[in-house]
Amino acid sequence: MAFDGITICNLVHELRENIENGRINKIAQPETDALMLTIKGPNGNRKLFLSASASLPLIYFTEKNKQNPMTAPNFCMLLRKHLSSARIIKIYQPDFERIIVFEIEHRNELGDLCLKKLIVEIMGKHSNIIFTDDKDMIIDSIKHIPASVSSVREVLPGRHYFIPKTTKKANPIYTTLQEFENLVFEKAMPLAKAIYQSYTGISPVAAQEICYRASLDGDRPVQTLDANAKMHLFHTFELFMDDIRQENFSPMIIYNQKEPKEYTVFPYEQFRDYQALSVDSISLALETFYQDKEIYSRIHQKSADLRRIVTSALERNRKKYDLQLHQLADTEGKDKYKLYGELLHTYGYSAVPGDKSITCLNYYTNEDITIPLDETKTAMENATRYFEKYNKLKRTKEALEELIVETKQEIEHLDAVLTSIDISTTEEDLKQIREELIISGEMKERGKETKKTKSKSKPFHYRTADGYDIYVGKNNLQNDELTFKFANGNDWWFHAKKMPGSHVVVKSKGDELPDHVFEDAARLAAYYSKGRGSQKVEIDYVRRKEVKKPGGSKPGFVVYYTNYSMTSDDDISQLTLLDD
Fold first, then answer.
1. Which of 206, 105, 120, 115 lies closest to 163, judged by CA?
2. Are 369 and 360 in contact (CB under 8 A)?
3. CB within 8 A of 402, min separation 6: which ones?
4. How many whole angstroms separate alpha carbon 124 and alpha carbon 173?
5. What is the pLDDT of residue 256?
6. Strand pairing partners for 45?
7. Tell me: the pLDDT tens digits for 344-372?
8. Per-residue CA distances from 74 to 32, 43, 77, 141, 427 (Å)
9. For a surface tag, which of 84, 150, 167, 355 has the fewest beta carbons within 10 Å of its beta carbon?
């Protein structure tokens, strides 16, 4: 979810519990737009990271250290001058904005108590950290915003600090039915959009959640609601706000398998079908979520080169396959030339030199047939020419039939590699795919970087509720390893029928597997295949001993001749993915 007012509210609650009335021991500025404060509170020293980055503004407690520059920046030196050993006396969120205000008490050079404010604005590209006096006059800020950059508000030393009200949004914490009706129900737009454009601090995800809890489609136009639906929506909105007012926070991270999808400050019903990881604090949720998100972004970037190589090779092979099929179709008329040669050997004596054709009886059909002739050649020479043409097309057809099989296998292999790239979750997974492409000749080895370097990538490991282990290969090399080296002959093997996908192995432990284990394994085979997203995917399953690998075949390619089949969906939300 966006770093909205609800997240800020949870953060303020956490900050109050840990550092309100605490003293600032250390101030560092590890990045040009970020601070690290070490604060001694009732629970001991805590490190608080505050970032005003335009791309990823954040604030959270952390245990990690960040490297500081050799010379502290001016803003950091100013804060050290005023706030070293200062006490944080109050932390609050004004009007449910994406703003946190720290009121800080310190003594000046004369020993008199003074009040200052450190204001953290988490507002996307407009984020900032601003230091003011007790009368809201700006002393300095981590980013200076002159009038030439913003016509709404200057953020410069000596200017008065204020929160710009660029939109007519209300504070959702103190809303009334009348205000809700005037703000939300008067807008000609989808319901969820009307909510987040009417109230401060409500993100699109939170607005969709409110609609979901009210059993209303967030994309439904406001004008289509009747009086009962409007009243139900308002009561749902109030119940949602009650959780915030009463600080019923229970942060969690929502995962789609291992990929972080969202974080929330309490359970969101719209994500009930996803995996949810409850965490102890919103700080831990933010730090973990964005670290995991960064890993997945990096994986996506690193996979781009592999994807481009495989996609280009796939396009080339598909064009080659179409051309080969077209050429094969051209050889279908070869038997006609053989017939012409045979008939000319039989009836060629009746042809007169210079004839452009000859009509004779086709003794296979008892019908007359006209055979074109090259008038510069004799009938026997024409017969020889037709036999040569027939033999050439026959050889061409035989060669094309072999090439078509090879090209089709190459297309299937590259399709499977693309599916492997889609399910990769680590750099080790991508490294193994690169090894596979080098082995199969789609890529050239670069220096010694891939030689003698064994990848640490392992198959996915799932466990059913009753303890059966299911393994899923992430790529073709793993599929071969899993099927032919790891699995025993009596283990069960699953694969999506006639489409690229992972090999799935269920360790049978010598037992007769319960029906639900077959169903779980089939769902995994459907999920980790090109059929993911389809309501029904046909899955083949068989004892592992029935699966064979032809000599010289591509990685991941297998054959089997007796099997069972079932259709399955790809819902694996009830299965537990283990970290081996």
1. 120
2. yes
3. none
4. 23
5. 82
6. 40
7. 999 998 988 899 999 999 999 999 999 99
8. 10, 31, 5, 10, 39
9. 167
Give the mean pLDDT of 79-91. Answer: 96
Angle, in degrees to the nearest 10, between helices 227-245 and 204-213:
120
> What's the confidence (pLDDT) of residue 193?
96
pLDDT at 533: 82
> Percentages helix, strand, coil for the chain, rounded to the nearest 5?
40, 25, 35
Cα 77 to Cα 85: distance, rounded to the nearest angstrom: 14
CA distance 532 to 537: 8
What is the tens place of the pLDDT at every residue in 318-340? 999 999 999 999 998 899 999 99
Identify the three-state secondary structure at position 198: coil
Nearest Cα neighbor of 318 from 430, 418, 434 is: 418
Residue with tokens 């609601």: 225
Long-range contact set of residues 288-292: C-beta below 8 Å, sequence gap at least 24 = 288/253, 288/260, 289/253, 289/260, 289/263, 290/56, 290/58, 292/253, 292/258, 292/259, 292/260
The residue whose two tokens read 């805590």 is 46
Amino acid at 397: K
User: What's the whole-model pTM score?
Assistant: 0.67
- Whether pLDDT at 121 is above 90: yes
- Coil, helix or strand at residue 565: strand
CA gap 359, 52 in Å, rounded? 91
For residue 519, the tally of other CB atoms under 10 A from its CB is 15
35, containing H or E segment:
strand 34-41
Q: What pLDDT sits at residue 450?
A: 45
Using left for φ > 0, alpha for ψ between -120 and 50, and beta otherwise, residue 210 falls in: alpha
Place of tokens 């950290």: 129
- Judged by DSSP in three states, 224 sits in helix
Cβ burial, residue 193 (10 Å; 0-12/13-18/19+): middle
pLDDT of 474-511, one tens digit each?
999 999 999 999 999 999 999 999 999 999 999 998 88
Residue 464 and residue 441 in contact, taking contact as beta carbons nearer than 8 Å: no
- Taking the C-alpha atoms of residue 155 and residue 121, their distance in angstroms, rounded to an integer, is 12
pLDDT at 443: 79
- Average pLDDT for residues 420-441, to the nearest whole number? 85
- Cα separation, 101 vs 12, whole angstroms: 9
